Amino acid sequence: MELVTTDLVSRARAGDGEAFRALTAPHQRELHVHCYRMLGSLQDAEDALQDTLLAAWQGLGAFEGRASVRTWLYRIATNRCLNVRRAASRRPVKVWDMPGAEMPEPTRLGEITWLEPWPDELHDPEARYEQTETMSLAFVTALQVLPSRQVAVLVLRDVLDFSAAEVAEMLGMTVDAANSALKRARAALRRQNVPGVAVPGPSEEALVARFVRAYTSGDVAALIELFTDDAVVSMPPIPLEYQGHEALTRLFTMIFESGRRVELMPVRANGQPAFGAYLAGSGSGLFVLTLAGDRISAFTRFEAELLPRFGLSL
Fold first, then answer.
1. Are residues 285 and 135 in contact, defined by beta-carbon separation less than 8 angstroms?
2. Which pLDDT score is estimated for 1?
3. Which residues, in sequence order, are bridge partners of residue 235?
4. pLDDT of 40-77, one tens digit each?
């Protein structure tokens, strides 16, 4: 295997594009997932992956073979993602623009307006780097509020199983600094109490069916019963967030009293139940549910422009 890799590297350095593709293709999927975790946005992850491949092609002359090609590519991808995270504004905030519906006062304004869901059709359940719980919206969102280098260390160490020495080398820091960053990142995640992803089963199917009935019929009381006491509704890139039964009741009452009734088309995102929402035959949004036992702990509404990513029409 080493001889094959060495041969591909030599040929790629000489300008052989096919050799470069053969060298990098086995790692592109996991690099895409890695960029998504780091950035929380499917579009940003795709852009970062392309930047990574371009940088790898241009930087082959500096590849000394001291680390594996996979480790070298992860180093490039991680640092490209860190550059993106340093950008002051990655995605413009959008204002609420639903005709005939004035939003109630939100509980708070959300910070992660660039968040996007990951289509389950891109998911490989056999891949170690795609553990379902580390693809959940809650986990990915939690990463976005941590300091960037802590995120990098946490993902590289706890999700991808790189050693402390490898991570320190990738990020240009000491092993002690890497271990310290990991400790702080783990503590921050514990404070956020990030939930995992429920395994799909009869209980999920029943809950999802009740949600569909309540939402499509505009039954506010039945809908609110399905949410945990501290459930959150968010709608990136619109920064408005609503938490708790009282706030959610005001929100859904406003939506349903406006006369909006949607058809829901089931899909899955981030290992969670999701729906394309259609109003009068046109896509109006993408809903993703986070479940906690037999209740819904989060409802995230995304823009309709994402529907084609999930095999749905606009």
1. no
2. 41
3. 238
4. 999 999 999 999 999 999 999 888 777 899 999 999 99
User: Which domains does the chain possess?
Assistant: 1-87 (1.10.1740.10), 202-310 (3.10.450.50)
Is residue 137 within 8 A of residue 115, CB to CB? The reply is yes
Query: For the CA atoms of the chain, what is the radius of gyration?
Result: 21
Q: What is the pLDDT of residues 107-140, one digit of tens each?
A: 999 989 999 999 988 766 666 556 678 899 999 9
Pick the more confident residue, 44 or 261: 44
Cα separation, 20 vs 38, whole angstroms: 25
Distances (CA, A) of 205 to 189, 273, 274, 288: 29, 9, 12, 14
The b/e string for 49-86 (b: 16+ C-beta within 10 A; e otherwise) is bebbbeebbeebeebeeeeebebbbbbbbbbbbbebbe
Q: E strand or H helix at 203, and its extent? A: helix 202-217
